[in-house]
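User: Assemble these into one structure.

Assistant: Restating your components, then the assembled model:
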Amino acid sequence: MRTGPNPQLDADGALQHLLTLEGMPAEIIERILDTAVPFVSIAERDVKKVPLLRGKTVFNLFFENSTRTRTTFEIAAKRLSADVINLNVGVSSTSKGETLLDTIDNLVAMNADMFVVRHAQSGAPHLIAQHLSARQRDHIHVINAGDGRHAHPTQGLLDLFTIRHYKHEFGKLTVAIIGDVLHSRVARSLIHGLTTMGVPEVRAIGPQTLLPTAVEKLGVRVFHDMRAGLAGCDVIVMLRLQSERMKGSLLPSAGEFFKHYGLTADKLALAKPDAIVMHPGPMNRGVEIDSAVADGKHSVILPQVTFGIAVRMAVMSMLAGG
Ligand code: CP
């Protein structure tokens, strides 16, 4: 990877890879959000395509399950006129012992221009970016589509886009992130994004066992009492209990969790009357969110998914120099 103040940026300050929102300058985040705005309306056209990635080959490498991220990246790349290959990891040669970097080298030999990578191991997309740089392949871009519990930068960006769309500016907001913050790469990326964009109050709400140690150092205010934490909030972001990443029992039961930290209509009433409710998905109804809220008038959960296409188009077109 080229070196500089931010390893995701090239020597001219242009986006080279998108690996994390930690340390990402506010101007770059703002440029991504601004670039995404006109891409939203492409979905309303008869021909939902622009030629910005024509001739480019994008490889979707999902070593972990996904519904929203994988499909919206594929739609985004196709709307930019790229050729898209979804590597079916389950039937690829990784199951025969091929290493991640050998797989990458083989795809580079097929003239890849961009890799979209989801991996259970934190740091896997960084490793690929460093590997490409060491082989003078700096023209190939890597996008982190979620690595372990570390980062999910395009989810953070689409969350920021959604918040800006409904609330117009970041400078006066109170945002609550609720639930399993400890295992959530979504929460980490969103916290970095919100603090960088100048949100004055970001709250992390959850039981002690599901909040990272010293989470306050990320610039958030901690609440263990959900009702107290919801008071005066403009934006509520609910998180899934990520049992696949939990070691040991961190909760008495899902029912007990819902009682204390599930978002119900009566708890939502403690936030501002025009508060929006967000969730990155996949959602577990009756565990972290009640169906009446998930499908209610405050919910912007499905618009988040739609905006994800435009935001991913913006990231890919900026990486490709568009
Ligand atoms: N938000 C999100 O990452 O969802 P998927 O796991 O379905 O991609």
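The mean pLDDT is 94.
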